[in-house]
Amino acid sequence: MLKQIEGSRAVAAAVALCRPEVICAYPISPQTHIVEALGEAVKAGGLPHCEFINVESEFAAMSVAIGASAAGARAYTATASQGLLFMAEAVYNASGLGLPIVMTVANRAIGAPINIWNDHTDAMSQRDCGWIQLFAETNQEALDLHIQAFRLGEELSLPVMVCMDGFILTHAYERVDLPTQAQVDAWLPPFEPRQVLDPAEPVSIGAMVGPEAFMEVRYLAHAKQMRALELIPGWAEEFRRAFGRDTGGLTHTYRTEDAEVIVVALGSVLGTIKDTVDAMREGGTKIGVLGITCFRPWPSAAVRAALAGARRVVVLEKSLAVGLGGIVSSSVRISYPGSPAAVHTVIAGLGGRAITREALARVFAEAFAGTLPPLTFLDLDRALVERALAREREQRRSGPIAENILRDLGTVASRAG
Amino acid sequence: MFQVRIHGRGGQGVVTAAELLSIAAFREGRHAQAFPSFGSERTGAPVVAYCRIDDREIRLREPILQPDALIIQDPTLLHQVDVFGGLAPNGYILINTTRTFEALGLGEFMRGFHAEHLCTVNATGLALKHVGRPVPNAALLGGFAAVTGRISLASVVAAIRDKFRGQIAEANVAAASEAFEFVTRETRARSHAETD
Fold it and tell me: Chains A, B: CB contacts under 8 A, how many?
């Protein structure tokens, strides 16, 4: 059924259709509306077999999800930003134990400086934690990916993180097609755990493993993720047949056939990139887009195939590996069949900085002209940076950077855009 | 694509206005995308919300930099924020005020725009009269339907009933309807004045 609703509400509806049995969460912007909607649904009796547990922290949220999943319940939680960092230890435990929890990450920057706006730093900080990580381009895709995530996670006994851009998607009203309960029931079988804490057949979960077998357990986690790479395209195809939508899968290409430059990105910025690419195509520029839906496991073969014909690759990423540059581009470089030097990193949208078609068209044109540096910060205010650097050269006690910069800007409060 | 930017202050229902407009457009079978200028959700702080309307899927996620229409919920913002930034000469402007453009000091500036695309309406007054609270958003959407003709009053009314229930819905419907009547009369009078 077509509905015009907020992204958070759409995701909450999708999670509810998956018949979760335990939902535990601690509120943090911009994830709050999702769990609020689920809390309301449970309270209103819409999910009779589900328990909604208010916990005291994100660490507790993931710990409760671990306990619930180990007891054989379909468990869901959601978080963002500092919340994800706070639960990090439990996040690793969930994957290490092989518990198929589904978690939404409403992507948001990480402090300091404190910032509630969107970028991908939170999800990227957990990229090696052993969870499957999927990134949604639209609210429709966010909705669909949650339905797929339960199936995927449960078949593989792996937790799945569905990442959606905070505010840009979570707070956007747009059209979504909400499937029926019958459709979801037909696609998502009941949870059959591989391991369960069952008093009738007692086991312990979470043994200490020493040097004699730790490598092997870790290897198996890797092998499982590699297996996911084989299975995900088939599931996406099955989903397309059942729901009529081409969502999920490993990657999506757009106008890449004869593209000399291909832009690689994740999440909602792909829409703005596609509009920019359409405009450049009208002017005869051969440019295309590769969207990464599945970031972990890294779909190396799919990326390699998609980029094979490209002369240059521009990786636009909403996170910064401080002291290195790009995180996504580091992965793209190992998969790109051409010279690694032809892969450019463009860091964009940090802390909610707007990513405009105008700025994108400018960097893409530089890529064609061969003048794009290996690492670029989109729309960086150089003058502001120079002032801060000068201050540090001139004064030993130059003071706190964030406060100084805000004073230079003359802002009393932060503004997006 | 038709792009609307709504300026107001926290507590005036700016974000809700954009959401309601997107629901109204959706009910007319169109694609619509509404989103806030995130973060500054404190009462009284300047807030911007956006709504894009199109006949095909909207992929663009940048803030609306070149609006086709502006709704200004609080005239005190005129001197604080660049509310008119990027507006095309044939763009629409609707301001919530009891004053005229001339009295607001905008007389000269407004001569660069189409007279029949501009209107002021006392939306706060209408909200107080019907809703009992100074929340001008629904009334402004009624006025928006009248001045732009881009959406029907019926769709605005349906969107209000979709998002609100009972007494609150009906009070907002009444405010929107009266604003629609007022702006229709105003713009008609204005275009007659131009023809004369």
Answer: 81
